Amino acid sequence: MYSYNAEYRRLFEGVIDNAVTEFPRTLALRIDLRYPPDYAYDRSNREITRFIESLKARLYTDTDRKAQRWGRRLSHRLRYIWVREFGGVRQRKHYHLVLLLNKDIYHTAGRFNGEDSLAGMIQQAWCSALGLRAERYACLVHFPEKGAMYLCYNSADYTAQRAVLVMRLDYLAKDHTKDYHDGYRSVGTSR
Questions:
Q1: Cβ of 57: how many Cβ atoms within 10 Å?
Q2: Rounded mean pLDDT, 155-180
């Protein structure tokens, strides 16, 4: 049985509430970001910061393109939760994330080999953050099975939808894979 970080749980719920307040129809997408076996990472979180900034820029460009194509104004904001973990036999650093997006624009990850899909933009952003070619290293982004969830604030099922997402986020709040003593944050969220 795992122990869970109660402060992380509170942070996660705040991000969810902010997302559905702005976008009553929200996509919550779970992803994992890994490093190549020979990648010389340090213990800081520079790569995840670069990833978030790169993904924001890609989403901004994509949303503008869709607004022109669809002939209407679109509003988006990337909300996110990330946790840094060390796991496996070799205790390799990796990240688990939940991305929260306007479901009226992004309703699935899309094609995993499509440059213009949400999945493709995520893969490109992670590879860009690491300084690697996406054609070769896109596989460093893992999309868990059943990793997409929908929150529809105005739905009669909203309370149940939210409860299921919060329960799934417990995986990110588990203590045993975190390093709380290395001087770097093990969690980050959008504001």
A1: 13
A2: 92
